[in-house]
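for the writeup, i need someone to sanity check this before i put it in the appendix. the sequnce is what the collaborator sent (i think, or maybe the updated version? ugh). structure was predicted straight from it, no edits. if anything looks off just tell me and ill rerun, i have time this weekend
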Amino acid sequence: MNQLAHPAAPIVPVTLELHGVRLEPLGPQHADGLRAAAGDGALWTLRVTSVPEPEQVDAYIATALEMRPGRLAFAVVDAASGTVLGTTSYHDIVPTIARLEIGYTWYGKRHQRSHVNTTCKLLLMTHAFETLGAALLGLRTDNFNFASQAAIERLGAKKDGVLRHHALRRDGTVRDTVMYSIAAGEWPEIKAQLRYKLALHGTR
């Protein structure tokens, strides 16, 4: 059943796994692992991300849970060891128009530029388009987060535009938000490209 086609039935938490990476519903049990992942590179010091400081992780998880059903957060976990690598979410879920976004995504420094993000995107997009019945999937990032913009564009997402003076950064400045999207009709080609990229990483 395409869950987004039935707004009365909210999206339910689900566990997804591929290539040694598991996405499981984020909960308080992931707090210590998330603190360790954030500490790998002191990610909270980066101006263009919203990674929580170690003492804020419990509140970060609680906020994610409070945002349901508009947000469904996942812990990104190494399936073999159980180590938490980072987190990602479905958010701004709008069942009436079969739209949702992927965001709130970050990984410990040692797992950046690895197969982890590509695997997570393949898992989340496959579930969104093929199980939830999404018509459109959005992604967004800070206008100064050029690495994130490049990564989104490598996925094959189309740039929709820029929302100016849109959101507050941790340093008190207000960012412009760059918006991207992928339509359901574009998914088969993007899926093939993601699988190709993972094959280059040696994952099959």
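The chain has one domain: 16-198. The domain at 16-198 is CATH 3.40.630.30 (Aminopeptidase).
thx in advance!!
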